[in-house]
Design a protein that fits this description.
This protein is an alpha/beta fold. The protein contains eight helices and nine strands. The strands form three sheets. Strands 7-1-8-9 form a four-stranded antiparallel β-sheet, covered by helices on one side. A three-stranded parallel β-sheet has the order 4-3-5, with helices on both faces. A two-stranded antiparallel sheet has the order 2-6. A hairpin with a 5-residue loop joins strand 8 and strand 9. The chain is globular, with a radius of gyration of 20 Å.
Length: about 230
């Protein structure tokens, strides 16, 4: 059953013509009528059904305006690097003992970073970490010896760009409280990554088939994307 608040929101917005993000942000923020700071979310559908192969994207984007939320970061590393990780802002840092805790189901973090030499041990926990999307990956910058940079990037604001089997991608561009300019800067950063990824793939036509913008508790609007993506 829809709430009184939801019933006051516009209807059939998906039937409207696609608009540029600059215009849609104004409409999206009008619909943020809850008491909490709603996220401004981007939903994409990629053209992943190609004749020769399916397109699978998995990468990260560093959001210049940040993500608007704090995440708990854990690091698996050698004993000698644990203090470095903590000084860089890691909430948890450990070696073999920490891996055993993860194996036992003690997962109280939202992002996991690992040094290359410890990945041999951590990789055995694929069935535990994989389904939760927490397994470190070199392509995502979470398997590295440069712990300081990896932790800093994660804290400043990162979003993963990963499509599901139907070609859908979802990520947040920030919060309602962000200025329009900050949201647009994050959106441009996403576009830059998508353009780069398109160049790395063999794609016939556009990479993005459909794009929508919404808020956590709002309704979706069609988003006009640049023609080169």
């Amino acid at each position: 059953m829809s709430s009184k608040r939801y019933k006051k929101l516009p209807i059939k917005t998906k039937e409207l013509s696609a608009e540029l993000i600059e215009k849609l942000i104004l409409e999206i923020k009008k619909n943020c009528t809850t008491k909490f700071d709603e996220s401004i979310d981007l939903s994409l559908q990629i053209n992943n059904k190609q004749k020769k192969s399916e397109i699978n994207l998995r990468t990260i984007v560093n959001l210049p305006s940040g993500a608007g939320k704090k995440i708990k970061i854990a690091v698996v590393c050698e004993d000698s690097k644990q203090q470095v990780a903590k000084d860089a802002g890691a909430d948890i840092a450990g070696a073999d003992d920490f891996i055993e805790k993860i194996k036992a189901g003690e997962i109280n973090f939202e992002k996991l970073i690992c040094t290359p030499s410890m990945m041999i041990k951590l990789s055995k926990l694929g069935k535990v970490l994989g389904p939760k999307g927490l397994m470190p990956n070199p392509k995502l910058g979470t398997v590295t010896d440069d712990l300081k940079k990896a932790i800093s990037d994660a804290k400043l604001g990162q979003a993963e760009i990963k499509n599901d089997k139907d070609g859908n991608i979802g990520l947040s561009l920030g919060k309602k409280s962000f200025s329009d300019d900050k949201i647009i800067k994050n959106f441009v950063a996403v576009l830059d990554v998508l353009e780069r990824e398109k160049g790395n793939q063999t794609i016939k036509g556009d990479l993005i088939k459909n794009a929508f913008l919404t808020s956590t508790m709002g309704v979706s609007y069609k988003l006009k994307m640049p023609k080169n993506i």
